[in-house]
Amino acid sequence: MWKRKKSVAPSVNSDMMNKQRRFEALVDAFQTDLYRFAYWLCQDKAIAEDVVQETFLRAWKSLHALKDEKAAKSWLITILRRENARRFERKQFDLVDVDDVVLVDDSISHEAGIHHREIRREIAALSSEYREPLVMQIILGMSGDEIAAELGLNKNTVMTRLFRARNQLKEKLENPVTLGGHQHG
Amino acid sequence: MDDLEFRRALYADPDSQDSKLIDAAKQDPTKAQALKEARQFNETLKSAAKVSAPEGLKARLLLKQSMQEERRQQSYRRHTWMAMAACFALVSLLSFNFLKPEPINLGEHAISHIAHEGVSPFNIEQPMALQTVNAKLARLNSQLTSDVSKVYYASFCLFKKVPSMHLVMDAPGGKVTVFIIPHDEAQLLPDHFEDGEFKGVGEDLGYANLVVVGNRDQDLTSTVQTLSDSLRTI
Predict the structure, then answer these.
(1) How much is the pTM?
(2) Residue A100 — pLDDT band, cuts 50, 70, 90?
(3) Which of A165, A175, B145, B226 could form a disulfide with A130 if both were Cys (CB 3.0 to 4.6 A apart)?
(4) In this complex, how many residue pairs, one in chain A and one in chain B, have their CB atoms less than 8 Å apart?
(5) Strand, coil or helix: B207
(6) Do B50 and A139 count as a contact with CB atoms less than 8 A apart?
(7) Could A123 and B41 be called an inter-chain contact, meaning their C-beta atoms sit closer than 8 Å?
(8) pLDDT tens-digit series, residues B174-201
(9) DSSP conformation class of A182
């Protein structure tokens, strides 16, 4: 019922099919982790999806530059962080209040859910210099050296930030200050 | 490894297999306990940080990429005649349209845009959350106030340099394409328009133009009514 006005390319060459397969493999392997990483960077579901969309579009355009599949993850993470930074240059998105967003997640409930929600709120409340390396470690499984390389910091700085991030989380979760806060432990 | 050193290393990376850390835990039951607790806490952190990815993400990623690729191929194929066309366009612009630009017919542009994009936006089966659609609409200072029909696709497109919203949504008689185009000087909004395949309706919302396009035999009246009731400027 939908007729194309332009004729389709005469032959789809095998290079193009290979490229398409590689791309779909990348999407399969990394879309969820990258979405989670983007979510923790910008803390808004819709913006996180936009950032992931832009990341994969950029990856498609320069897929030829990815020579070693083992480097794919860090390559994509570098692209994603750059796309996220461009968002601020363009000032295209409005920032959303952190508390509003973190409360929105409805995918979990009951005891574990309440606990998860508190943890998410505290992760969201960490300053980004602590949150970003922490999320790189726990979501993306990156080592201290890899995080240091990606963030352009030395490893000791990264390890100190990871230590402080966990220390802050542990203190806040063990001593909730909000009235009516749920007690644990 | 003293206590402070141990705690710093442990909190920096509870899953570390570093032999100094493991040995210290083996020699001291308090440290062994701390190691166990830190690893448990880390597992809890990991599972809490795993927010669920939106459904249909993969389909939308692949769709975007295929559209991008199509555009690239078309622009490559047209490259040669585009150069010539650009010359003619420049001449005609200088000679005829220099003072007053030709208004864009939103109906014609909508139909050629749909023909250009092909069937991909119609093949998405997974509806989008209203919240996600509104997050995009917010960039046009617009918003859907209530749950209208299911929206499957929401993307930005250009109507003669005016960034506009392109939606695909359910409607009586099959999915329709909806464009929300912010007002601009040289725009011509027809009430009704059609070609061999498509039929469309235009409506001025006051702050933007609404264009709904369906197939030739589709009745679009109720869809236009619902949309103009639930679209608001913010």
Answers:
(1) 0.57
(2) very low
(3) A165
(4) 121
(5) coil
(6) yes
(7) no
(8) 999 999 999 888 888 999 998 888 999 9
(9) P
Q: Which residues of B touch A166 (CB under 8 A)?
A: 11-12, 14, 38, 41-42, 45
The 10s digit of each residue's pLDDT in B80-138 is: 677 777 767 776 666 665 556 678 889 888 988 888 878 888 888 888 888 888 888 88
Is the ipTM higher than 0.90? The answer is no
Burial B199-220 (b: 16+ CB within 10 A, else e): bbbbbebeebbbbbbbbeebeb
Interface contact B57-A49, CB threshold 8 A = yes
A150 contacts: CB under 8 Å, gap ≥ 6: A74, A77, A78, A81, A136, A142
Least CB–CB distance from B49: residue in A1, A40, A52: A40
CA distance B151 to B46: 33
- The residues, ordered by sequence, that sit 6+ positions from B197 with a Cβ below 8 Å of its Cβ are A1, A2, A3, B115, B215, B216
